[in-house]
Amino acid sequence: MFDPFEEIRRLQDRFYRLVEEFERRIPEFREFKLSMPVDVIDEEEEMRIVADLPGFKKEDIEVYFEGDSLVIKAERKEEEEERKREYVKKERRYGMFFRRISVPSEVDKDNVKAKYNNGVLEITIPKVIKEKKTIKIE
Q: Strand locations in 33-110, DSSP E?
């Protein structure tokens, strides 16, 4: 059965893979993108998402579900005194960092845990354990 939302998720994943491939081939592109590197680990009983967010305060990070996607948002604001300085070189980025990660529908969204330590955000999403249901044959 055709599921239009599943098709959208597949297209979204394909888009992100294309962007990542583009970044690998043209490293300079990475300088202009406010993104965050993530690892998505699919384990037997849970999914783990590990995101590098160095230099953020815990209060500046937001994690939430939007449909079948987990959204990670973080904002780094430039202080007023930093804007007034005369820089020789300025490489650190400020603004909104955003990442949307598709997750399977068989996860327990009510028992998600997130911890942030030393610039690394780790999110653990338990999977829903489906019981095997035997169907009685008449």
A: 38-42, 46-52, 61-66, 69-76, 95-102
Q: What is the extent of the structural domain holding 123?
A: 36-138
Same domain, 45 and 102: yes
Containing 10, the helix (H) or strand (E) segment is: helix 4-25
**pTM of the complete model beyond 0.85:** no
**Contact (Cβ atoms closer than 8 angstroms) between residue 39 and residue 18:** no
Number of independent structural domains in the chain:
2
Amino acid found at 115: K
C-alpha–C-alpha distance, residues 46 and 127, integer Å: 5
Per-residue pLDDT, 98 = 84
